[in-house]
Design brief:
The protein is an alpha/beta fold. It is built from twelve helices and 14 strands. Helix content is 34%, strand content 11%.
């Protein structure tokens, strides 16, 4: 059931989403109970019971075994443990495993972890991103086939945090497993938005050669589930506050046979790979929120897809350029990213903020930094264009009245942002980083076309 959004109008659910009432109730009830889950006395055993019941709930919601659930302090820690811990663990088994494959549009938690590995003697190799902001499977297969014995890990997100593009994780994981390489998936933005199945076989994605379905020409609906906790995946990251749970808790699903080295040291409370006293109340609330998010994802995805379709049409009517795949089956329904010619994204964001609307210039983990979006830059947009984008993200509290408020505020906010510091929008002939446009469909335009092809990401390797 949709409830009124908090004030101001909140369109930044990809950064964090409001706490669900059921999760809040579970949190408050558990917080009244004292006890360390590692203690042997009765209060400690009661706290342990809360944790283990929550572990079973999380496992059930995601189609995993309880023993595969490692609780963490959030998505960032889970990503660090998966990327660094797996690379260290695999190299400890075989020193030849010194290569890591990572896409250039991952969340900073993954990219910075990979950068740390690069400074620690690993070779970090970028996966190619195609014209639609999705990983190029053909080139990924070439990278995997080149000396697979030297590969420690492949990591690829399920859904991009800025464009909403769904990555072909199921196909990539199958390729990686064929070559004997574990794949980690950051699924933080996929949970509860139709892109993650609970233990079922993932449905195939539509190929780009298929006629794309338009947002305006066909009934809006959720994408098919494209990633699931199957044998092809070695590790998967989830976060509490992206599903209506509290901040400060998340989980890493990790296969029991995955060789993980800890990145935090202490008591080894979670499978000897994650140390720290387990926050029983946060974990209990997280499990309730995740269960509710997964149980309602079909209805919520349909509802948000309709709102996103309306939002996309309104933005294009105002001259914005929508970013991401043109095919609705290849993007989640809760993220809409748009470029606004002649605007600096910070100026536009602050203008909307003054009008009582909250949105984002990109990942909240890099917000506040005056720079072009690294994701948009990786997709081929030049710095001026990559500094003109806003991300609107919808969630369980979003309703038509929120978009009504945006409809009223956006024209004036655009005028103010352009007056504050208008920049020339490059013409179609202006030089920019090479890219190839996605196939356009009505209501979801392609990025600017260019003349050159993207460089070969294999660096000349076979």
């Amino acid at each position: 059931m949709t409830t009124a959004s908090p004030s101001p109008v909140y369109l930044d659910h990809a950064a964090t989403t409001p706490l669900r009432p059921a999760a809040r109730a579970a949190w408050l009830t558990a917080a009244d109970q004292v006890g360390n889950p590692s203690s042997l006395h009765q209060p400690g055993r009661a706290a342990r019971r809360l944790v283990e019941e929550a572990r079973e709930q999380v496992a059930l919601a995601l189609g995993a075994e309880p023993a595969e659930v490692v609780f963490t302090a959030g998505g960032t820690e889970a990503d660090n443990l998966a990327v660094i811990g797996t690379a260290w663990g695999r190299r400890s088994e075989d020193p030849a495993r010194r290569r890591v494959l990572v896409s250039p549009i991952e969340h900073p938690a993954v990219l910075e972890s990979a950068d740390h590995l690069g400074q620690s003697g690993f070779e970090v190799v970028e996966l190619a991103v195609g014209r639609d902001g999705r990983v190029d499977l053909e080139r990924a297969d070439r990278l995997l086939a080149f000396d697979p014995a030297s590969l420690a890990l492949v990591t690829c997100q399920a859904v991009n945090q800025e464009t909403g593009a769904i990555q072909p994780v199921a196909e990539l994981a199958a390729l990686a497993r064929r070559h004997g390489v574990p794949l980690h998936c950051d699924a933080v933005q996929a949970i509860g938005h139709g892109a993650l199945a609970a233990g079922a076989s993932p449905a195939p994605l539509l190929d780009q050669s298929d006629a794309p379905a338009s947002l305006t020409a066909s009934p809006a609906g959720p994408p098919s589930a494209v990633v699931a906790w199957t044998a092809d995946l070695a590790a998967l990251t989830v976060s509490g506050h992206k599903v209506g749970g509290p901040v400060g808790v998340g989980a890493l699903l990790a296969r029991r046979d995955l060789k993980l080295k800890p990145v935090l040291f202490g008591g080894g409370q979670e499978r000897r790979v994650r140390s720290g006293t387990l926050p029983a109340a946060l974990i209990a609330a997280f499990a309730v929120a995740l269960t509710e998010q997964m149980a309602t994802q079909a209805e919520q995805s349909r509802r948000l897809a309709q709102l996103a379709a309306r939002l996309g049409r309104r933005l294009t009517d105002l001259g914005a350029v929508l970013v991401g795949p043109s095919d609705p089956a290849q993007r989640v329904c809760h993220i809409v990213n748009a470029l606004f010619p002649g605007c600096e994204h910070d100026a536009l964001l602050l203008s909307l903020d003054a009008a009582g609307l909250a949105c984002s210039t990109g990942s909240a983990c890099t917000a506040g930094v005056a720079q072009a979006s690294p994701v948009l830059s990786a997709l081929g947009y030049d710095p001026a264009q990559a500094r003109s984008g806003l991300r609107f993200s919808l969630g369980w509290t979003t309703g038509p009245s929120d978009l009504d408020a945006l409809d009223r505020a956006l024209p004036e906010a655009l005028a103010r942002a352009r007056a504050a510091g208008q920049r020339d929008w490059p013409s179609a002939d202006a030089p920019r980083r090479p890219t190839t446009p996605a196939t356009a469909s009505p209501g979801w335009p392609a990025p600017p076309s260019t003349a050159a092809a993207s460089p070969d990401p294999t660096g000349g390797r076979p």
